[in-house]
Amino acid sequence: MKNACIVEAENLFDKMPQRNTVTWNTMIRGYFQNGFFDKAMYSFNKMPERDNFSYNTVIAGLMQCGDVNNAREVFDGMVDRSVVTWNSMISGYVRNGLIDEAIRVFDNTPIRDVVSWNLVIGGLVNCQRIDLAEEYFKEMNDRDVASWTIMVSGLVRAGRIVEARELFEEMPVKDIQAWNVMTAGYVESGYLDMAEDLFQRMPVRDLNSWKQLINGLVNVQRIDEAIRKFMEMPEKCQKTWNLIILGFIRCGLIEVAHAFLEKCPYSNIVSWTNVIVGYFEIGEVRNAVKVFELIRTRDTTVWNVMIFGLGENDRGEDGIKFFIRMKESDLFPDQSTFTSVFTICSDLPSLDLGKQTHAQTIKTGLNCLIAVSNAMVTMYARCGNMQSALQEFSSMPIHDVISWNSIICGFAHHGEGKKALEMFERMRLTNVKPNHITFVGVLSASSHAGLVDQGRYYFDYMKNKCFLQPTSEHYTCVVDLLGRFGLIDEAMSFLDQIRADGVEIPPSVWGALLGACRIHKNIKVGEIAGESILEVEPSNSGVYLILAEMFLSSGRKEDAEKIWARMKGNGIKKQPGCSWIEINNSGHVFLSGDRSHTEFRRICFLLNLLSAEMGTKILKPRTATSEGNSNLF
Questions:
Q1: How far from 604 is each of 213, 577, 578, 614, CA to CA, in Å?
Q2: Helix segments in 485-536, DSSP class H
Q3: Which Pfam family is one of this chain's hits (predicted)?
Q4: CB–CB of 303/334 below 8 Å?
């Protein structure tokens, strides 16, 4: 039973020619320890004879699985109760958070030992009822080390560190646990010098003593002292060393952590993985790759870190290459691997790799995991394949808020506002509560679908029914909704509402208003919106161009020239547009004004061929000159 060999134990039990109470008790205890509560109760009810230990075992087991009522029923059915029986009830009530019931049983206990007192005091400490715990502690006639240690721990948790130290000094006998509790109290309260002083006074130290102090030094970024203490440890602890390395990383000292790893013999794969994470966080992709290549034996986690880190640093294609290398190394991808790969595939020009990876998840059975399914829905939605996104969403047995957000925002992003709102209404029929991201999708969908009244309703629903504080994204969606349909004055009033809420209007909101003014030719408000953006984002080339275009369209050529002059004076240039297509499994990227594509002449020929019926020649390639490719048109 101790080794969880249940079937073997049952077979041996069934073969026994004679069984006594000890044998039955062993089976019942084993069932409870291994989680077979029904079998334990069946055996208990089948016992021909029971002793006190039988009842105590069943009470403790039922309390352990949270079946308080049945434990009470067994207790009430006992004729002879020992102090262990009463303690089992007290302990069970404490375990299940029923401290008042525990106190009631304690008060009715005819015989109490020090364990009874410690159980109640410990329960009160855990419930943060320290004053009542003190009263019970003072009533105790006989206290052991555990009694004192529980009270010291309770005072530390309550932030009464001075009183905890006074009680600690009163202890007639202190064991290593008491010293550790007091030291940990100082560490947690930020009194590192006091903790160090107490640490030096300790007659004996165990691994926890060293770990507590070193952890405290790391947390306050006293890394050098933490290393010195680590070197003094009689037995080095790998977890503590990893924590020190993590301390360096949190302080931004990634290269220092890296150097220590190469010099010291205590490093393992966790240490190296933490350094890789650190390099990725500061954008040092090359160094992260170098560290990875130094690791001889790699586990799934370090591969996942590489794939995720490369994706987060806009090196998704490299992340895919590492994914392929991982599979070639005979390591099995897990949930984190596939979610990272699907996230990368969301930003690729082709869905082929995403579909192949989807097939792999089906083969491995990981497609049943909600996180993997969510990543697939998001990937298909971002890539515009809403049919596949909806199909994957519909095949999921359960949905969480991420699942609903992915499908709602996907439909909203691709202009299918009514479908997005239909999905939201379905979501409202479930127990899943919408969050901020949900309403970004809902408000955006309302805008795309032209449902102004519904958009207003959903915004109020979010604030007043779901009690979610709007963010800049929500405000932007509402302004975009109103502006699209020419409700510029209402949009301006909405900005006043934002200010009344104590929120500074973000550039994204002004941008939505500027776009609306451009469409509806409201030059006055558009100029206000544009200048408001430029105050915060003076390098936003798009705003200059929109303002200039609006001025030109309204006959204000001089104002347009002033905008161009400001743009030129500030050294701002328009970022070229970018697009890509896939032909024969090969991606082709095009930048506006770029004539360097290898198939440029062929593209010109085909476009002119297609436009022949229009009577117009679109492109005319010229021979490259010594000045480069600038004269190709």
A1: 72, 19, 18, 15
A2: 488-500, 507-520, 523-536
A3: E_motif
A4: no
Q: Which two tokens stand for residue 110?
A: 């005819």
* Lookup: tokens for 330: 């005979």
DSSP assignment of 222-263, as one string?
A: -HHHHHHHHHH-SS--HHHHHHHHHHHHHTT-HHHHHHHHHH
The pTM for the full model equals 0.65
C-beta of residue 423 within 8 angstroms of C-beta of residue 411: yes
CA angle 418, 423, 426 (to 5 degrees): 130
pLDDT digits (tens, 9 = 90+) for 128-182: 888 888 888 888 888 888 888 888 888 888 888 888 888 888 888 888 888 888 8
Handedness of CA 372, 376, 378, 382 (dihedral sign): positive
CA distances from 147 to 158, 293, 453 (A): 17, 53, 65
The pair of three-digit structure tokens given for residue 18, joined into one six-digit string: 């004679």
Dihedral sign, CA of 141, 146, 152, 158?
Answer: negative
Which residues, 6+ apart, have CB-to-CB distance to 387 below 8 Å?
none
Query: To which H or E segment does residue 298 belong?
Result: none
| Phi, psi angles (nearest 5°) of residue 517 | -65, -35
Distance CA 123, CA 118 (A): 8
Handedness of CA 582, 403, 447, 490 (dihedral sign): negative
Q: Are strands 578-583 and 586-591 parallel, antiparallel or unpaired?
A: antiparallel
Cα–Cα distance between 169 and 204 in angstroms, integer? 17
Asked if 388 contacts 403 with a C-beta cutoff of 8 angstroms, the reply is no
For CA atoms 455, 459, 460, 465, give the dihedral sign. Answer: positive
The torsion angles phi and psi of 627, rounded to 5 degrees, stand at -80, 0
C-alpha closest to that of 58 among 48, 276, 77: 77
CA nearest neighbour of 355 among 329, 324, 376 = 376
The residue with tokens 């519904």 is 454
Q: Quote the CA–CA distance of 359 and 63 in Å, as a whole number.
A: 46
In 3D space, the residue among 470, 538, 547, 544 whose CA is nearest the CA of residue 509 turns out to be 470
The per-residue pLDDT for 577 is 64
Read off the pLDDT of residues 496-527 as tens digits, 9 standing for 90 and up.
888 888 888 889 999 999 999 998 989 999 99
Which residues face 589 on adjacent strands? 580
- Whole-angstrom distance, CA of residue 527 vs CA of residue 532: 8
